């Protein structure tokens, strides 16, 4: 994307029309076009909406933060580029997945390496209704990944605390109590939230055109990664050949992109991305239902009611909260503790 500037006075005028920011763990969020945009990224969002031109062969990876974006970046990059790099020369061995697959909202940012893949693979946390028109209107394909929102919430909690030097406006401010953050999350106040609208937006787009939008679930990938590697390849129009399958390429990609492998690579153990975020903070536990170690049964009950009230009548309720609700029953006898 050519580097242009988004006029400062337009942003200033827009901000006059929006409510003052609401703070999520010290990070200002503004309600813009029905979603909670991090204030620090609003300018980039507007820039992207105005100038980004999707190409028909682009691959867009979309998600609510902390739903498995890093994993999906690694998988998509390896699948699309499997004839370009052998497994032992794959750039994932020496680069964090976020350095190989840029975020749409950060493309214009200084220091962004741009695209190193053809077709281009670009990630975004922007809700479907707010992505640039050309993404909706072109033939580009979108892969959406969702995750049990309670795990998403706990993952985000760790991530934002570990990187508060990047996201928090007042860096010395004390951490939010877990229950305060949870209260906001249940109201939909979370970066790029409400999560229910985010999921519904992409889900409805998938129903309307399943060839354009593939809807994946983190928990399903954890259950059978080989199956989903093949599904992604088919969706992108580059299915594995019989020969590739015989050679075990699907399993090799699964292993390369596994949590254990990526977490233990030198490049992901230390250091920072160009935006100041700790590389290691993208690889915490990679588990399903970790929320049960942090949230009380009462909190989970409250969450269940929120899910029903927001998603009732849509299959998304079943798809995204089925595991949350089942695990609520499983975890209800567990002892629990607060994160702080
Ligand atoms: P992002 O939205 O900031 O890019 P994202 O990658 O979506 O973050 O989410 C990070 C979560 O995915 C972390 O979950 P946790 O906090 O519950 O542990 C991270 O551990 C997990 N994750 C990262 N890479 C993988 C992987 N290869 N396999 C499974 N889970 C992974």
Automatic annotation (TrEMBL):
Keyword tags: Transferase
Domain Sulfotransferase: start-end pairs: 56-314
Pfam families: Sulfotransfer_1 (PF00685)
The organism's place on the tree of life at top rank: Eukaryota
Signal peptide (UniProt feature, chain positions): none
InterPro entries from the UniProt entry: P-loop_NTPase (IPR027417), Sulfotransferase_dom (IPR000863)
Top-rank EC class of the record's enzyme: transferase
EC number: 2.8.2.-
Record family assignment: Belongs to the sulfotransferase 1 family.
Entry protein name: Sulfotransferase
Classification lineage: Eukaryota, Viridiplantae, Streptophyta, Embryophyta, Tracheophyta
């Amino acid at each position: 994307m050519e580097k242009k500037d988004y006029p400062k006075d337009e942003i200033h005028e827009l901000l006059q029309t929006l409510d003052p920011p609401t703070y999520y763990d010290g990070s200002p969020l503004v309600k813009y076009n029905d979603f909670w945009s991090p204030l620090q990224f609003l300018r980039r969002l507007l820039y992207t909406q105005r100038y980004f031109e999707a190409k028909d062969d682009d691959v867009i990876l979309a998600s609510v933060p902390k739903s498995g974006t890093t994993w999906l970046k690694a998988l998509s990059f390896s699948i699309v580029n499997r004839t370009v790099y052998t497994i032992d020369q794959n750039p994932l061995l020496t680069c964090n997945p976020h350095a190989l697959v840029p975020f749409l909202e950060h493309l214009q940012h200084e220091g962004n390496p741009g695209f190193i893949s053809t077709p281009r693979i670009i990630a975004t946390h922007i809700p479907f209704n707010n992505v640039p028109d050309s993404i909706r209107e072109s033939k580009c394909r979108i892969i959406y990944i969702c995750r049990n929102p309670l795990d998403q919430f706990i993952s985000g909690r760790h991530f934002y605390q570990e990187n508060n030097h990047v996201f928090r406006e007042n860096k010395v401010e004390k951490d939010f109590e877990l229950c305060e953050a949870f209260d906001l999350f249940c109201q939909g106040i979370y970066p790029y939230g409400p999560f229910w609208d985010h999921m519904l937006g992409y889900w409805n787009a998938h129903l309307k055109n399943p060839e354009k939008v593939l809807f994946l679930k983190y928990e399903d990938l954890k259950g059978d990664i080989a199956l989903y590697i093949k599904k992604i390849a088919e969706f992108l129009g580059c299915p594995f050949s019989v020969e590739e399958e015989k050679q075990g390429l699907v399993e090799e990609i699964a292993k390369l992109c596994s949590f254990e492998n990526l977490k233990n690579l030198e490049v992901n153990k230390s250091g920072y991305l160009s935006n100041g975020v700790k590389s290691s903070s993208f690889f915490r536990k990679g588990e399903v239902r970790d929320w049960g170690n942090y949230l009380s049964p009462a909190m989970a009950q409250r969450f269940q009611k929120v899910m029903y009230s927001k998603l009732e009548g849509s299959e998304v309720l079943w798809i995204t909260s089925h595991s949350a609700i089942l695990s609520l029953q499983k975890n209800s006898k567990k002892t629990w503790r607060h994160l702080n």
